[in-house]
Amino acid sequence: MRALHAVAQHGSVAAAAAALHVTPSGVSQQLAKLQREAGQELLEPRGRGVQLTRAGQVLVAHAEKVLAQLAQARSDLELLREDVLGPLRIGAIPTTVHALLPPALATLAAQHPRLEVTLREGEAEQTMPQVLAGDLDLAVLESWADRPTVLPPGTAQITLFSDVADLVLPAGHRLAHRRAVDLAEVDDLPWIGWTAGSGCYDWLVQVLRKQGLDPRISCTVGGYPTQLALVAGNAGAALVPRLARESVPDGARVLTTRPALVRTILAVCRAGEEEHGGVRAALDALRAASARFEGAVSPGR
Questions:
Q1: Are the C-beta atoms of residues 25 and 13 closer than 8 Å to each other?
Q2: Looking at residue 67, what is its pLDDT?
């Protein structure tokens, strides 16, 4: 098809061969093969050159479309190598879906509009198996200093930034006027946590037990804004990451804890994929989005 198109453009086999950087005999062989497959004469003599028959004209019109499509395919493959198209599947914990992913996805849409991004919210226990199985390309998760997330073999982790969980008390509580407290002092309130069986629930239980507190969890809800509202309603105390707090409702007070409760926000992918494909583009966007949080949620604040 390429040989036929070149002959149509240049008017002779010799000129087509020169344009294609092959020998005239090579072009003639390709044309003969194409003519046999077509079952019709495609060229006829015209002076010192050749011209297309009607069948040749029909086929060369298709050749133009085919060659244009092949050129587009090559272009797409090059773009894929440069991380700008194709499916990209991301899983992320709820606090990062709310705060980190919107600016990251906006960056990806602006810089790589041919990436087809999908996002699933989920905890590490849900998203990590999906990364390993190839159902997700990238997962954003947390790892607490006192309860590190164990990553399975075959994965690569990229640290994005650190975050801190603070104590949130009802405004009328005896400790609410303080700026910082030892967590062990909060021994007179029930606790508000995530759904039982989740990593966040297990982390809260572990933190309370380490401080000698009874992990009496009276409310289990799957969102920090709701937890804050329950604290303001005097339902108990909560430990809420700074990344999850846009505002604190009236009736609740935020205190820092001793010791500080620090978590690291990580991006995790299959080993070897962090420098390739849409994953690299996503990591660049996540790093850029993380820069705005690093100072605001660091343990020193």
A1: no
A2: 81
Neighbours of 248 (CB within 10 A): 16
| 90-99 pLDDT per residue, tens | 999 999 998 9
Query: CB neighbours (10 Å) of residue 23?
Result: 13
pLDDT over threshold 90, residue 301: no
**Mean pLDDT of the 46-61 span:** 87
pLDDT beyond 60 at 123 = yes
Is the four-CA dihedral 227, 194, 163, 103 of positive or negative sign?
Answer: negative
Q: Is the pTM of this model over 0.85?
A: no
Q: What angle do CA 179, 182, 183 make, to 5 degrees?
A: 105
Q: What is the pLDDT of residue 191?
A: 97
Q: Is 272 exposed, middle or buried (0-12, 13-18, 19+ CB in 10 A)?
A: exposed
Residues 6+ apart with CB under 8 A from 157: 151, 266, 267, 268
- 218 secondary structure, DSSP code: E
Residue recorded with tokens 């899983």: 91
**Contact assessment for residue 169 and residue 176, using Cβ atoms and an 8 Å cutoff:** yes
What would the two tokens of residue 10 be? 């240049």
Q: Give bridge partners of residue 45 from the DSSP assignment.
A: 50
Q: What letter does residue 243 receive in the DSSP assignment?
A: G
Q: For the residues 5-15, what does the mean pLDDT come to?
A: 86
Question: For 54-82, what is each residue's pLDDT tens digit?
Answer: 998 999 899 888 888 887 776 666 555 55
Q: Are 268 and 131 in contact (CB under 8 A)?
A: yes
- Dist. CA 83–CA 114, nearest whole Å: 9
Contacts of 8 (CB under 8 A, 6+ apart): 52, 56, 60, 63
Q: Are 6 and 20 in contact (CB under 8 A)?
A: yes
